[in-house]
Queue: 2 jobs
Job 1
Amino acid sequence: MRDVTSDMIWAPLFQRLKTTTGADDRDLQALAALPFTLRHYRENQTVLRDGEEPSECCLIADGFCVRSKTIADGRGQILSIHIPGDLPNLQNLHFPTVDHDLIALSDCTLAFIAHKALNDLIGRRPGVGDMFWRDTLVDAAVSREWIVNVGQRSTYNRLAHLIVELRERLRLIGRVIDNTFAIPLTQEQFGEAMGVTSVHTNRILRELRIDGVLELQRGTVRILNEHKLQELAQFDGRYLHLSPSP
Amino acid sequence: MRDVTSDMIWAPLFQRLKTTTGADDRDLQALAALPFTLRHYRENQTVLRDGEEPSECCLIADGFCVRSKTIADGRGQILSIHIPGDLPNLQNLHFPTVDHDLIALSDCTLAFIAHKALNDLIGRRPGVGDMFWRDTLVDAAVSREWIVNVGQRSTYNRLAHLIVELRERLRLIGRVIDNTFAIPLTQEQFGEAMGVTSVHTNRILRELRIDGVLELQRGTVRILNEHKLQELAQFDGRYLHLSPSP
DNA sequence: AGGCGAACACAACAAATGTTAAGATATGCG
DNA sequence: CGCATATCTTAACATTTGTTGTGTTCGCCT
């Protein structure tokens, strides 16, 4: 396994925090000095299981994860998609249990940081606590937007919205090049994120392709018509709070 | 307007916090000593508007409110239903803007408490901050459960789940008597909460009535067959964290 | 009491989405 | 390289949900 520097671990998070919360450099340096444990996960491996009570928070250093819930009849719903720089179980800093699964979509590298270390740091540097606090609030705002997406938008528009949201978040960490970027979900998983079947996802993807809006092949999205995409997605990025508030 | 004592304002919140977070009585007493402004809203009146930056948090003392978002084509989605004792914009303590509307479903009495007063109190009594922190985390967990509800459950099961969730929350504040309780939504609004039309909501309600599961008349729910309801809702209340964690 | 508007009820038909099944294409592995 | 498996693609048909329209009921106001 190739060598990983602390820099590579923290870079996406710092890039995001600087853009969204106007982070203080000394807070970030203090964060980067924290001890962490790297763990690698393979595609489809479970990182956190519903009901667990983790003693660490994890930072996605590389790869994609999803939160997901499975109901009694076996149907699953993806609740959110997480990319490098995300802290998908920050809530466990103040709340014991996770109430969903966290699953690696692709091969992933995660850095685990002990709650104790984080809490100590927050005690010394309240700015770090504030950043994290805001981060969980953005997370909640994203969940609310997903309710709207699944509840009200047509599947055609819904997929457009999902893709634009991911693109904006990927752009923040420099993962969008020439209107092309990775969202390593299968069509079945796109369906689980939208609350429809894989067959229907396939139908909608074909329409988007035929209409010249976008193409998706094996987890790589290519935008063909930016204007049309915007029109379909009706994306209002305020909920992501992409710029620091006054 | 009849006289309202401070006790009546705080009682539902305290009842809930005692059950869910094992609140310290001195923390609650300190809360009850905070100055607040009472405001009354009529049915369908907007309490907070998308994009606003409130300087106060509100506590629902009496009545029901919903969070709701409207998309470009005019369709609306209800994001959550709030009952007496809820603090629906606690997030604004640490985050400036609201990204949805807050609307009174019925005639409502809300107590507004200045951020400054709350922050001062949290500084003096960290336990209060912890309680609030947990409260927003439960709020986020409810949002995630709604994604599952709208995305994966059949409308029939979805309505059962929605009603059981509300019942459990209403039970906490003593508003369930003899399997009967108020959820003052119109059928159209139940539809907006579930992501379906009012016509379809009506169909599903008829089925539930014919099947002897429950009855809904003008915002009053009566459970007819508890066992069947449970079976349909597949309700796992862990996400509400109804009992204090260890 | 009468009238008005909102909410409810229900039916007929249209559109969206699920189900099942089959073949095609890609990917990993021996 | 060739097999084995997962993913993608598509079609036909079933089911769910939306749309439109028309009465009916209820609560409120005068």
Job 2
Amino acid sequence: MAAENKKQDKREAILNAAESLFAKHGYDGVTLRAIAKEAGVDVALANYHFGPKRDLFDAVLLRRAQILNSWRLEALEATVQNAAPNPPQVKDIIRAYFEPLLKRSQVQEPGWKSYYALIAYVNSSPEWGGTLMTQFFDPMIHRFLAVLKTALPGVPDKSMYWGYHCLSGALTLAFAQTGRIDHLSDDLCKSDDLPDACDYIVDFVAAGFSDMIAASQKETATL
Amino acid sequence: MAAENKKQDKREAILNAAESLFAKHGYDGVTLRAIAKEAGVDVALANYHFGPKRDLFDAVLLRRAQILNSWRLEALEATVQNAAPNPPQVKDIIRAYFEPLLKRSQVQEPGWKSYYALIAYVNSSPEWGGTLMTQFFDPMIHRFLAVLKTALPGVPDKSMYWGYHCLSGALTLAFAQTGRIDHLSDDLCKSDDLPDACDYIVDFVAAGFSDMIAASQKETATL
DNA sequence: CTAGAATTTCAACAATTGTTGAAGACGTAA
DNA sequence: TTACGTCTTCAACAATTGTTGAAATTCTAG
């Protein structure tokens, strides 16, 4: 059981350690020495593989962003195909955005859990949120919004964008698993029960989007 | 115009500088020297007034939390009185939660803007979110949820808590003003137009809560 | 003005930071 | 074996970190 280190999985051990620690304490709250210790390697090795600290941070983010994007686009296209030639239901589109986070036993994988918390950190940070999230996720999101618009004809773009912002805030906060809702609800709701959280959030968000149709119709009616 | 320092507003200058910098870069991303420089005082003064760094962070959070809580409770009770003896409308309750953030020309005050971004950072951080937010805001939130339940009879508590979690995520992300939605919407939506943001988020969140009634009725009907 | 308390600055501390260059260990192909 | 390129460690660097004790300044009573 000793000497299980294959060839150079130390590189990935560094990524995993960095992912976990950045998720917990943020970029500046983590030292390269802490990462190296968690990964069981020397401090200098992180710099050898990834360059400066900031580049390691980007590498951690990028690794799973690509996978997640492809999973979400897959689920979205399947939803579109499923409903064709009609536009899909709003709730099914929202589900296509949420369910890739849960499938393939991701919930059990601690790496993905850390990654979700990390995304929450990046998303709500004035330092990273504006640029990094855009860079990694916007093309996928635009495709998602385009499909959502077919299900919500006549809804102004501004409502759609703010609606997505609400979705994004609710989703990232829930997946950050801060333990907040556990305290607030006296353990009626559990931060780490992501499938359960998804059920509720999907309903909430779908209702928020669906209501835009009624609102936009009421608006045009008064003209 | 020189020598405008009154008595000991240096203490507040430190709080303001810390607030602004913590909001931008998080707890670990800010040094006491950066705070002191921004405040125009010596490094040691922060420690003299507030003790260790962590206590300064708490002091920054606490200063406006108390004010915000009282404003929100005021607005909530006014809403209740206004609708009595009937329960208020869902949207009016949500508005009572949002509008204190905008009133009294807070939008212009950079201090409050920084504070909102700081709350977003704390809220989504696994390190602070579970404990600090609970400590500062939970009593006010419980009163808010109690009133909301009168407007949404029969809705299960679990739905209510997850609904609040969605509200909280959407609100804090928007008020973090990361510039994210500006990029995503090609400047159709502006991060720093908080009143505009509130209009859209209030509608979205109110719809999410209101839909819970229909859902819970449909559920009991199938039994 | 004077004494004493509160505030502010100065200078320095031990510890930690990201990064680097040289040396060592490993794997592979001749 | 030898040689060579990749991976890993070691040791150390200059800079920065939070914190502190003593000195200097300012404020407030008497």
